[in-house]
């Protein structure tokens, strides 16, 4: 079998045939180098090089790379530290209320669903789960749970246990017919299968970075459809949440009118820079 990438870009691949990217992938070497360089510069120079402008614009490359990956615009992309963190902030932003329901499956990865369970403890919304068997859930069983009280349909694009892939366009059509949002965890698909987020009609799509995107722990991305960018009030907020992050005043909070309203604080910024390199690499490979 011919390799579609240069094995030199994944030096550890010489050691074995690595088949565990659904857990933790081998990292693209360009990402590893970028992260180490960034951490070294920060450790040795502090804010001499990583100044206010650098911090304000630090996610720029990852916004652009993820936008290319999902066929979206940079302003449709938010960066976070993990898929779980982004889904949690989103779940509190949507906060499905009493007498509404959230539809998912009982075979989904726990982090995809727990944020909604947590919000449900607070709001008493109903959680409806299609029952899976042997790590497989019938997509029609998911669709049948959707009704006019459904606020959110939340699925993992590819299920982590059995690898089944949902037809997002079909799911989005049914969700939207009932005025529900389709929220997709693409952590097990992004980088492995093409995703055109606007074309498949998802409202929100989140992916961690350390699986099929061949990036590090510590960075994740979220696509937020334009119609939500002036609507949702993120569950997590901090100094970075204000539209001009360096205009530090604690007595008011005006959020950006882009997906970037979900970016709220400092993080392991080098990981975001590294993930940008990995995604650029994968998009170039095609
Ligand atoms: C579908 C899915 N979502 C989320 C996660 C966890 O993502 P993170 O570690 O970025 O929170 C995993 C990890 O296995 C996963 O398979």
Provide a compact summary of the structure.
It is built from 9 helices and 7 strands. With 286 residues, it is α/β, with parallel strands linked by helices. Helix 1 (29-45) packs antiparallel against helix 9.
Kindly describe this structure.
This protein has about 290 residues and is of the alpha/beta class. The protein has a seven-stranded mixed beta sheet with strand order 1-7-6-5-4-2-3, sandwiched between helices. Helix 8 (about 195-200) links the parallel strand 5 (about 180-185) and strand 6. The protein is globular and about 55 Å long. Helix 3 (about 60-70) packs parallel to helix 9. The protein has one domain (about 70-245, about 255-285): Type I PLP-dependent aspartate aminotransferase-like (Major domain) (Aspartate Aminotransferase, domain 2). The chain has helices at about 30-45, 50-55, 60-70, 85-95, 110-125, 140-145, 170-175, 195-200, 270-285, and strands at about 75-80, 100-105, 125-130, 150-155, 180-185, 205-210, 220-225. Pyridoxal-5'-phosphate binds near residues 84, 109, 160 and 187. Pyridoxal-5'-phosphate (PLP) binds near residues 83 and 185.
